[in-house]
Design a protein that fits this description.
single chain, alpha/beta, Ubiquitin-like (UB roll), Rossmann fold, five-stranded mixed sheet, 18 helices
């Protein structure tokens, strides 16, 4: 190993349930994923020490790689020594632990407060109170709300640079009074990111009582948002908060080259990395069992959502409640029995069912997944900020999926169809799968060693699933939507006419490519084009041509919807059997019909 160069990298992501560990190293001159393991996160009492679970995983990884990670005292060996002992660099991310309680103080709810709200999204926070000029509270009520919230952090924003100062000065005085009323050992840290002319005054006025961090104004002008510098400060605070919240992360932080970074923040940074690399809009979505994250990036524009009440297992019942049963029913090829949807969600929440037992439950699972993605997307883009217009979701160039329901399904074309249903795609979109759960690790590594991240991506750490080509427009069912000519690498030519209301899956193995010529029918476009030529890579999902247009919403009966959905399912899964619809699916349940005991 060249002196000063850090080749071997250990990346650890501490989740609420599982800890993931990745070993990256240089192989034949380029970085590769050498091995990865996961195990239970030991963050609950009585063993509230994430290091215990990590030690167990590292011992397993040591046996698999013939590399020694720990010394006789159980400490991580750094830097790497001869004969495969130790590692050069350790990066750590985490989503496990109690959320950070934050009070947001500003002037207007849709400007400074709105920007602060977006800034804290990837830091596992709980906004326990918002104080602003339009909150309808008296000064005494505001003071009491701050004190009663028992915050870990007070985030003060508001006022444009060079703008009026009186209102913000009053808010700073309110914050000072509230902090003074809190017992010294329980006082929060303060982050000031408002009118820069008041930054020095904020440090002087509040610094006598608590630690005050400052960042450039997150709203320097009425029409410009700049949250990235504040998020850099929040990353440092997150690390310190995790270290001082208990003994759990202290030893880990001591050997980490990055400190403890929030996994969702690294997830967001990796989405932005993809967007810069491809010069296209990129969306990453990870649907977990208890919590889910979504991030969208294009250029300097970013939008993210992190929810602890949306998921496909522990949070399934809450997801159903948030989406509403009607939203789920719209994606089912049958009439659900009374209580059936709630019963299935509750079973998922209690972890008594890990996977759907039959096709009926599988369709409920797919409907919950679509609803969860749409809830996250709505959360991410719900904003009055002008920067939201910079991200045209209809022109997504790449979607990266994570979570067992999508990334672990093994059926790439099916995953792409579900994404087509849940997202406003209108063009040609690549789909990749974070099957290892490596995005947080890569996002943490990117600022330190971007070339390593590029090499790891080229080596397939994040799997290329395939490409989705989606037609939009208006045309009668049965009319030609797309005429396709595909030249395979072997020279074979495959021709196909895809009718309105249909979907076609072209298998194309990983490592291969194909040249596509496409022409749409009248009134139909792919993106803004009627003709296009493109070369696409293969993957386990191949290429999916989606010409369903409005077939789902246009179905006039449950029978028509069921025929369509089962036909589409057969098309993307490669099932050749005739589409069979159980008669019971098409019978509307009586009002007093109840879910059978399971």
């Amino acid at each position: 190993m060249t002196e000063g160069r850090k080749d071997s990298i250990l990346a650890v992501d501490f989740g609420s349930v599982n800890t993931r560990v990745f070993l990256f190293d240089v192989v034949d001159g380029e970085y590769a994923l050498v091995a990865n393991r996961r195990g239970k996160t030991s963050i609950e009492a009585p063993a509230d020490d994430v290091g215990l679970g990590l030690t167990k995983i590292l011992r397993d990884l040591s046996s698999a790689t013939d590399r020694r990670f720990l010394d006789e005292a159980g400490e991580l060996i750094k830097p790497e020594q001869s004969e495969r002992v130790g590692i050069d660099c350790c990066i750590t991310t985490a989503s496990a632990g109690q959320p950070i309680k934050v009070v947001l103080i500003g002037l207007l709810p849709d400007k400074g407060i709105g920007s602060a709200r977006r800034a804290i999204v990837p830091f596992y926070t709980d906004a326990v109170a918002e104080i602003h000029l339009e909150d309808g509270l008296s000064d005494m009520a505001r003071l009491n709300r701050i004190v009663d919230s028992r915050p870990d952090l007070i985030f003060i924003s508001g006022g444009t640079d060079g703008g009026a100062r009186a209102a913000m000065s009053n808010m700073l005085e309110l914050a000072r009074q509230a902090i003074a009323a809190i017992q010294p050992g329980n006082r929060p840290t303060v982050l000031y990111a408002g009118n820069k002319d008041l930054a020095a005054g904020a440090r002087e006025r509040l610094g006598q009582l608590v630690e005050v961090m400052t960042a450039p104004n997150i709203r320097p002008t009425p029409h410009r948002e700049a949250i990235e510098p504040a998020q850099a400060v929040l990353s440092r605070f997150y690390n310190e908060f995790r270290r001082r919240a208990g003994s759990s992360y202290q030893n880990i932080a001591a050997v980490s080259d990055t400190g403890i970074l929030p996994s969702a923040r690294s997830f967001e940074l990796m989405t932005a990395f993809f967007a810069r690399m491809l010069d296209a809009a990129v969306l990453s979505v990870d649907i977990g069992g208890a919590k889910s994250a979504l991030s969208v990036a294009l250029g300097e524009g970013r939008r993210s959502a992190l929810r602890t009440d949306i998921g496909m297992a522990q949070s399934a019942a809450k997801t159903l409640e948030l989406a509403g049963e009607e939203a789920i029913k719209a994606w089912l090829p049958f009439h659900p029995r009374k209580g059936e949807l709630a019963g299935y969600a509750v079973k998922k929440s209690l972890r008594s069912v890990n996977k759907p037992l039959d096709m009926r439950e599988r369709y409920i699972e797919f409907a919950l997944l679509r609803a969860g993605i749409q809830l996250l997307l709505n959360d991410a883009i719900r904003s009055g900020d002008e920067n939201a217009s910079r991200i045209d979701l209809s022109r997504l160039g790449l979607i990266v999926v994570g979570g067992a329901t999508l990334a672990g399904s093994g059926q790439g074309a099916l995953d792409m169809m579900l994404l087509s249903d849940a997202l406003p795609i209108k063009a040609v979109t690549q789909v990749m799968s974070d099957r290892h759960g490596a995005l947080p690790a890569l996002g943490a590594l990117a600022p330190m060693n971007p070339s390593a991240v590029v090499q790891l991506l080229q080596r397939g750490v994040v799997e290329h699933v395939g490409s989705l080509i989606k037609a939009t427009g208006r045309a009668a069912m049965g009319k030609v939507a797309m005429r396709i000519s595909v030249e395979m690498a072997s020279g074979e030519i495959v021709g196909r006419e895809i009718l309105v209301g249909d979907i076609w899956h072209l298998p194309l193995p990983a490592g291969s490519s194909a040249d596509i010529s496409l022409q749409t029918g009248r009134g139909i476009r792919v993106g803004d084009k009627r003709r296009m030529r493109l070369r696409l890579r293969g993957g386990r999902g191949g290429i999916l041509f989606d010409a369903r247009l409005s077939a789902m919403s246009a179905a006039e009966s449950i029978t028509e919807r069921a025929v369509n959905m089962l036909r589409w399912f057969a098309a993307v899964t490669g099932e050749d059997q005739p589409v069979m619809i159980p008669e019971s699916w098409l019978v509307a349940p009586d009002a007093d019909d109840s879910l059978e005991a399971t």
